[in-house]
Write a structure and sequence with these properties.
The protein is mainly α. It is built from 8 helices and 6 strands, in the order H-E-H-H-E-H-E-E-H-E-H-H-E-H. It has 2 domains: 76 residues, EF-hand (Recoverin, domain 1), CATH 1.10.238.10; 63 residues, Recoverin, domain 1 (Orthogonal Bundle). The strands form 3 sheets. The chain has a two-stranded antiparallel ribbon. A two-stranded antiparallel sheet has the order 3-4. Strands 5-6 form a two-stranded antiparallel ribbon. Keywords: Calcium, Repeat. It comes from Guillardia theta (strain CCMP2712) (Cryptophyte).
C-alpha cells in the first residue's frame, strides 16, 4: 500500500509538473512547477538550487526529465542501491493480473487497464505511450515480462 501510494503521488506530481503534456519535463517547466507548489519552505529556494535539483534528476544530462528518471530518483534507496520494485513476486503477480489473455505479454490496452484498475492511475495517453515505448524493446507493440521488470 505504501509503495502504491508513493507511486500514485509521484505520477500525479509528474503529470502536474508536465504543463504542456508532452511526457517530459524541461528545466523551465520543472522550476516553475516547484515554485508554484503551495509549500512556503520552497518559496525561498534559489534558481541555482532548483537547477541543481533538475540536473540531479536528469540522470542522463540530456536537459529533459523523463517519467522514468523522475520515478527512479525518488524510488531508489541510494544507501542500499536497491529499487523498491525489486520484489519480483509482487511484480509477477501484477503482470499476470494485467495479462488478461494469458499470452505472456501485455498489449497497450491490457497495460492501460492494469494501470487504471490496479494502480488507480489515469495517465495521459502521451505518458502511457512513452512508458510502453520504453518498455517495448523489440518494437512489437507488446510488453513482455522481462521488459515489464525494467
Amino acid at each position: 500500500k505504501a509503495i502504491e501510494s508513493l507511486f500514485d503521488e509521484l505520477f500525479d506530481a509528474f503529470v502536474v509538473f508536465d504543463s504542456n503534456s508532452d511526457g517530459k519535463l524541461h528545466k523551465t517547466e520543472f522550476c516553475e512547477a516547484i515554485r508554484n507548489l503551495n509549500e512556503p519552505s520552497l518559496k525561498d529556494i534559489s534558481d541555482s538550487v532548483l537547477e541543481d535539483l533538475f540536473d540531479y534528476i536528469d540522470s542522463n544530462a540530456d536537459g529533459i526529465i523523463t517519467l522514468e528518471e523522475f520515478l527512479s530518483t525518488f524510488t531508489v534507496d541510494k544507501r542500499k542501491g536497491k529499487a523498491m520494485r525489486s520484489n519480483f513476486k509482487s511484480l509477477l503477480q501484477a503482470f499476470k493480473r494485467m495479462d488478461v489473455d494469458h499470452d505472456g505479454r501485455l498489449s497497450r490496452e491490457e497495460f492501460r487497464k492494469g494501470v487504471e484498475n490496479r494502480l488507480k492511475l489515469k495517465l495521459p495517453s502521451k505518458i502511457l505511450d512513452e512508458i510502453i515505448r520504453r518498455s517495448d524493446k523489440q518494437g512489437t507493440g507488446f510488453i513482455d515480462y522481462e521488459h515489464f521488470l525494467e
